[in-house]
Amino acid sequence: MIDNPIKKLISGEGATELVVQLQKIVDLSVSKFLKSHKIESVDYRIIINHPSREDYGDYSTNVALMLSSRLKLTPEALAQSICDEINDMIRSHQNIAPISWRNGVKTDDFKVSDVLEKCDIAGSGFINMWLNEIFLITQTSRLLSKLEPVTTTQINSKKQTGLLTGTKIMMEFAHPNTHKEFHIGHLRNISLGESLVRLLERAGSEVFRANYEGDVGLHVAKAIYGVKKKLALRHPGSGRLIPMEIGKSHDSPGVEVLRKLLPAEKAKFLGEGYALGSKEYENEDAKKEIMDLNKSIYNNPYQVDLWEETRGWSLEYFDTVYKRLGSRFDRLFFESEVEKKGRDKVKEGVKKGIFIEDKDGSIYFPGEKYGLNNCVFVTREDYATYEGKEIALEELEYKTFPFDLDIHVVANEQINFFQIAFKAVEMVHPVQKGRQYHLPYGMVNLKTGKISSRTGQVITADHLLDQAKLKILKLLKPGYSKEDQEEIAEKTAVAAVKYTMLRVGPKMDIAFDLEESVSFDGDSGPYLLYTYARCRSVLRRAVISSKKQVASSKYDEINKTHTTYYLLLTTEERSLLRAFYRFEEVVDDAVVNLSPNLICSYLFELAQKFNLFYSRHSILKPDNKEPAYAELSSATAGEQTKDNREPAYAELSSATAGEQTKDNRDPAYAELSSATAGEQTKDNREDIRHPSGSRMDSLGVEKSVKNFRLFLTQATSQIIKEGLYLLGIETVERM
Length: 735
Prior knowledge:
By secondary structure, the protein is of the alpha/beta class. It is 52% helix and 9% strand. InterPro entries: Arg-tRNA-ligase, Arg-tRNA-synth_N, Arg-tRNA-synth_N_sf, ArgRS_core, DALR_anticod-bd, Rossmann-like_a/b/a_fold, tRNAsynth_Ia_anticodon-bd.
């Protein structure tokens, strides 16, 4: 087993370009200090992290703490010296040459002052660095230009240069068994697998979507037995089951009725059949019939009555679930296609000394030789066990898609299984050594017992989604068409369930609470969708839609024109701006650690920052009572006439000028909650005046503030949309 399979696939520097640049700045500063003190070369590693608090800066390094004892200096003194060197580099606008970065790519050359605003020390020797605000804006513009418009109903096939460019990864996930319903545990599996596929694709890897389904075994025999019994297909005299051949003379009227049912209804019937078969299995006579049926399925499933048709019902049902959840697969693998091959491979392995035949005729893998436990791979009845099938499965998967890594998303209760199976696989197929990885995930339990299953046995995926949808429909405000209401409720229900499955680390258990998952407040999928819809509503009212956006380059020009304003950012604006550049770092961390929950945490924090900003500041009609606004008005008095004539200013103004009067009448204006709409209506009626009470003689300040706030809104909406895409969640434009 591999501790971290992704790290071994990364070629070159795994950090983002910005972190590499900061490491270089710190490295040069340390080198200057060592040289000025005539200290010979010292080995050290520069680690760049984010401080625990925003007021400590954007980045921090503990290099002084690491070096101080070796240089016989106090950490504080060394940190101050390094910090002074960095501040000197900022003041002198020192230029840094291109740095080798990732996949043979070099960074652009840059001036330290273009990246950093200042450096300071804190605590017992930490060095804190603040990014230049103009740099933050430029970084955000660059990020937005890289975020392609994406949809979650179709997987973006375009590969982007990233951490895993040139690699090939198979993601094996979902794994429902035929003849059973798709339950709540499968929901976590497919949510996790789908998100990881998208993350790995974003990192540049070619990803193959595999799904291994159990279509033979005792559970299938129990289900078919139960289905036949439910259909009452019994001989009047003996009471034994009548052999059936679908499409021939033994067809039952009951089967004809089943064929006309919806996929979910067929799956429900199969689930009930399985429950009945499991109960009957406790009876000795029924148990013998089920065991005989199981043997027939293993020998040749296609000759077993009802097997192929009921299997088809399951696959048809699974397809509806996959579509509803926004997932697809490149290839379905089945136990029925690898059982015999696996059995034969294990028998060949006996001759090579890999496996051992026991006295009862079974064949086992001597796991104790490798610190594992011994395990049967072929039973005495001559069936390949799950482990035995794995031998053939891995060979088939590798022939189908020659991968660098095969990630198996399977519950943590199977950890021992994969440890044994992978060891045996690499001995039978040496090429597989180091290519297999089991990503275990925790169990899903209900926090309360309020959700009841239709079968009384398991909580099915469609039932849970339907329950979430009903609750969301009750929470939606009136005013939507029936079609819009249906679309919003469906997408929000899927978002609610998926986000709940993803927002904690994969290895942690989940206590699922339906009420919490559908809440529009707090850490939930609906909360993020609501925040995105709020951003889109503001942008629609500013005539900035997905088809008519203000280009990032125009914002860059405005940055140069109105740099005075950026020195006067409000606390909420600055906090939001400082969140954007971290998105790429979070995505990389989520890829390396196979942890979509990192994306969830980031998006929730970003949404909180935006909603705080939104609640305290008007975007379309900036409040002239804000201290920074008044200061800017005073600082820029007399310059607005010139500013208003600048091309960049005029171009952006033309996109938004004249819209404010009709904003209050725009239907989109009332899309959000009544409280929000009321707040915005009031804001839109505000008369922009100088604190002295006199009318401002220029709209330059107002437009500068407004355009910058629209920039923050646009950035928030695009990052949330991209982040949700990576989670496998589709956004809604209105809510």
